[in-house]
Design goal:
The protein has helices spanning 3-30, 40-85, 87-102, 105-115, 120-145, 149-157, 162-199, 206-215. With 222 residues, the protein is mainly α. It folds into two domains: 1-31; 38-215, Orthogonal Bundle (MetI-like fold). The protein is globular, with a radius of gyration of 23 Å. The mean pLDDT is 82.
Length: 222
């Protein structure tokens, strides 16, 4: 293991340990009981007590997040390709996407929950998709639209088709932007899933578990 690899592992690990120690110290100095603010030392007993519940609810959150993310990747990539290859479509769609993304997602969640009452799985997947597809679509669009025209001209002069240009030049050029956006989309999809689970009545998942802990003032569970 090289020094750079070891550093990449140790630095975030040490930072996390320092954060947990500070958290524990602040709770201890303030004298807060665990129903007011849980400390890191309260978390392991809570997990041991509710581990079966965590696994069950965690699975519900996981599969909904993954399904919503997969749909977002497929749709976002397709939409990004359309905007990347067509300036007309980019000029038409990009302002709409930016405007939609500017809407606070916390206001969209209850609207979706009321539109599809009882369809909890569908609601959750829909919100995960709606929140996470934007960075993928924009990144793919930017990656394709900034492709150097000289490359396209050279390949076209050699008789290359549009599909060949895409696979040989455009796709490799877009991959860095795509994977960068995917990291953001994963987090957004998880946030969207939990938001819907918190809002939906009789919901299941980590968000519902969090809401249950809030209702019962069970901070270690939260």
């Amino acid at each position: 293991m090289t020094f750079q690899t070891l550093q990449k592992v140790l630095v975030p690990t040490v930072a996390m340990l320092v954060f947990l120690i500070l958290w524990e110290f602040i709770v201890w100095v303030a004298g807060w009981p665990n129903y007011k603010m849980a400390s890191p030392s309260d978390l392991l007993p809570a997990f041991s007590k509710h581990w079966n519940l965590f696994l069950t609810m965690g699975w519900q959150t996981l599969w909904r997040t993954v399904v919503g993310l997969v749909i977002a990747v497929i749709f976002g990539t397709g939409l990004g390709m359309v905007m990347g290859f067509s300036r007309l479509m980019r000029d038409a769609l990009y302002p709409l996407l930016v405007g939609f993304n500017a809407i606070p997602k916390a206001t969209v969640v209850p609207i979706v929950a009321l539109m599809f009452v009882g369809a909890h799985d569908f609601n959750t997947i829909l919100i995960a998709f709606m929140i996470s597809f934007f960075p993928i679509a924009v990144s793919v669009s930017i990656g394709l639209s900034t492709l150097e025209p000289e490359y396209r001209d050279i390949l076209r002069s050699l008789g290359a088709s549009q599909s060949t240009i895409f696979w040989k030049i455009a796709l490799p050029k877009t991959l860095p932007e795509f994977f960068g956006a995917l990291k953001v989309a994963v987090t957004l999809a998880f946030i969207g899933t939990n938001l819907m689970e918190i809002v939906s009545p009789h919901g299941r998942g980590l968000g519902a578990l969090f809401d249950s802990g809030k209702t019962n003032s069970d901070y270690p569970l939260m």
